[in-house]
Amino acid sequence: MNRGRLSALAVAAVVLLEFAAVRAADPTSPPPPPRPRDLPVLRAPVVARPMQPAAFTRSVPRDVADLLAIQKQVGKLVGDLSKATVGLRIGNGAGSGVIVSADGYVLSAAHVTGPPNRRVTVLLADGRSLRGRTLGLDRGLDASVLKIEAKGPFPFRPLARPKDVRTGDWCLALGHPGGFQRNRPPVVRLGRVIRTESGFVQTDCTLVGGDSGGPLFDLSGNVIGIHSRIGAPTTWNFHVPIRAYTESWARFLDGVAFGRPSRGRQPVLGINGVDHARGCTVTAVNPNMPAAKAGVKIGDLIVKIDGKVFEGLDSLFDHVQSRKPGDKLKLSIQRNGKPVEITVTLAGGRGP
Amino acid sequence: MSRVVMQSSRLVLAVSAVLAVLTTPVTLEAAAPRRLPRDLYKSGAAIRNAFRPIVKLPSQATVAVLVNGRQKALGAIVGSDGWVLTKASQVNGINGGTITCRLKDGKTHPARQVGFHPAHDLAMLKIEATGLKEVVWHSKSDPSVGSLLATCGPNDLPVAVGVVSIHRRRIPHLFGFLGVGFEDVPGGARISRVMPNSGASRIGLKVGDVIIRVAGTTIPRGAVLRDQIRKFRPGDVLPMRVRRGSVEFDSNARLGSPAEHLQNRSIFMNKLGGQLSFRRGGFPNAFAHDTVLKPEQCGGPLVDLQGRTVGINIAREGRTESHAIPAQVIVGLLEDLKTGRQFAAPANRLGPVDPPPVPLPR
Nearest CA to CA, how far is A71 from chain B (Å)? Predict the structure, then answer.
């Protein structure tokens, strides 16, 4: 399934966290039946982040007391976060989601839920298995909403305000890696927000297939993102930003499919690597991608980009991201101790 | 009177709040950077540095276990007179390799393997040293989900940090992988494909060979062969009888792990972000945590915020999970392992679980 995209793993290329044969909505699929506009909620259930103790907001925990404070808060939240985190079964596919209202609205990822008006099985942590139906989706940001059809109230967690989400926030990722398993509650991971962009949130909460659609929470227990895709390093975990839901809530509830996947528009180099004190060592070169065509080889130590020194793979990634497909990039390489200069023409691929 | 007290306590609160802000080195609100500096990632150096006082003592009870001079695992000192517990499959079975342990003080001691527990994949090593610091177990209960954990190395800072992700449970084992495609023929399974770098290719099995018996079971058709192979784990030796033309011969293939060969999407994603442990399943009792470890960083103590050892890291299982055997399970085994007891291998298995003599390419 979808081999082409698997092999495209590279700097600035990421993999959707698909677990089985579920794909995003086909843009040519027939329009969904109109939904009556009698929905009680037309604004996303958003809450402001309350004042946080200093232990949560310091860039570095000052002492063990700060760590204990973070641990205590996580311990206090975990039960409630687990209750609101759900497993999803749709056709042959599996993913995750999060209940954000007592009447059963669930956030997930577009590539998990697919087109509107599909039947979904929603699996709660307490063992309940409920029927649901998909509503709208944003293919561009990989966001979707569905509704549990049973009668609530359901355990839920509200959305955070998009402006409250900041680089450095401690966060918790929950979900069902590998798909929902009986007797295994949602799996908890702790991390920090590494980047916040208009199109994604990046964290070091490790994700894998099956997590897609699952929630990223802040330390107040509010939803700040939805798991979407990963890259090769364990710190490349990308989440749908919460604004995707707050800004288009009414359209989601109306069952509208909108937005376009960004595939093909992001600059791609076509390598993977590991950090090196002087730059980045190439560990993989993707065939038929720009780096391979220009002659970059596994084991090359990239020391400069366009004549400038840089720090590690992430920095190289940022540099590639700042350019456009078709742009030329000059790489200064140490190969077997000898300097080599290579000019690469960036291609277009799927970025975060 | 009470009003005064309240006011003064309010005053104290106000002062401490101001102090807290002033003494914070860099508040994130001050200037949110576009990208979080690497040092500030969850397991970045600055964050691990906050764990320095926590691992101060347990790191002295941690060793690096080297085979032929290369670090293959970490280990926990579980007896001051030279007892070291580690992950068995990382150190044994490496054809006559010399095992040494490097302590935090930099000293290296030759080690020999004494006890072995195949199910938990634990080995007890003995080094000739006395007066060592031992790990302090916390075996009353497992750490709860969300608890912060540090993986100790024989250094001032922990190797990495994380939280408990899943309470303890049984971790199912992975199927062994022979590396052949086959079709049914009368009296056996005829090999239609041999995968490169597999156990099958290493013993020279060829397309057209017919496997007629494995591990004492006659193979009437392919499905039986598949079921038989699935009873074994990666690293196990599978004895088989093979017919090639008019000749029959016996051979032993070392089974590999499916991850090395299959292009399954789930396996692919789990390998994103680093190498996994060769033996990473089939544990009777383990809890999962989200600490990103390398295979050679397993085998050592995992401590809570009090510096107590709550488990031994036993495997890097996937992109999201590392497994640890709870302290409670381990303390009950220590004395037996020290006496050199070789625990029985679980059913369906022939030999000790150990890596193949030739490392499999990734």
Answer: 6
Q: Encode burial over A194-226: b for 16+ CB neighbours within 10 A, e otherwise.
A: bbbeebbbbbbbbbbbbbbbbbbbbbbbbbbbb
CB pairs < 8 Å spanning A and B: 179
DSSP label at residue A13: B
What type of residue is A333? I
Distance CA A186, CA A346 (A): 40
Q: Check CB contact under 8 Å for B164 and A62.
A: no
Distance of alpha carbon B317 from alpha carbon B296, whole angstroms = 13
Calculate how close chain B gets to A47, using CA atoms only, in Å.
Answer: 19
What residue type is assigned to position B122 of the chain?
L
- Residue B174: helix, strand or coil by DSSP? coil
- Chain A residue with CA closest to B171: the answer is A184
Please spell the DSSP secondary structure of A187-216, one letter per residue: PPEEEEEEEE-SS-EEESS---TT-TT-EE
B54 DSSP assignment: H
Q: Collapsing DSSP states into helix, strand and coil, what is residue B222? A: helix
Q: Do B269 and A208 touch (CB under 8 A)?
A: yes
Among A72, A190, A237, which would you mutate to test the B interface (most chain B Cβ atoms within 10 Å of its Cβ)? Answer: A190
Cβ–Cβ of B50/A60 closer than 8 Å? Answer: yes
The 10s digit of each residue's pLDDT in A123-168 is 999 999 999 999 999 999 999 999 999 998 999 999 999 999 999 9
Mean pLDDT in order along chain B per 10 residues (362 residues): 32 31 35 77 96 98 95 97 95 75 97 92 96 97 97 97 96 83 89 88 92 91 86 82 92 77 62 76 93 96 98 94 97 93 62 34 30
Residue B342 contacts by C-beta under 8 Å, 6 or more apart in sequence? B115, B116
3-state helix, strand, coil in chain A (%, to 5): 15, 35, 45
Contact B290 A188 (CB under 8 A): yes
3-state helix, strand, coil in chain B (%, to 5): 20, 35, 45
Radius of gyration of chain A measured on its C-alpha atoms: 21
User: Of the candidates B36, B162, B164, which has its C-beta nearest A168's C-beta?
Assistant: B36
Contact list, B318 vs chain A (CB under 8 Å): 177-178, 208
Residue B72 burial class via C-beta count within 10 angstroms: exposed 0-12, middle 13-18, buried 19 and up? buried
Contact A100, A107 (CB under 8 A): yes
| Run of H or E including A248 | none
Would you state the structure tokens that stand for residue A135, as one six-digit string? Answer: 């509503």
**Nearest CA distance, A168 vs chain B (angstrom):** 6
Residue B210 amino acid letter: V
CA–CA min distance B146, chain A (Å):
5
- Backbone φ and ψ for B62, nearest 5 degrees, come out as -120, 140
What are A198-253's pLDDT values in tens digits?
899 999 999 998 999 999 999 999 999 999 998 878 898 999 999 999 999 999 99
Q: Of A171, A117, A182, which is closest to residue A145 (Cα–Cα)?
A: A117
pTM: 0.80
Ordered alpha helix ranges (H), B111-169: none
Q: Which residue has the tokens 């929630």?
A: A215
- Cβ-based contacts of B266 with chain A (< 8 Å): 19, 178, 208-210
Please state, in angstroms and rounded to a whole number, the distance separating the CA atoms of residues A284 and A270: 8
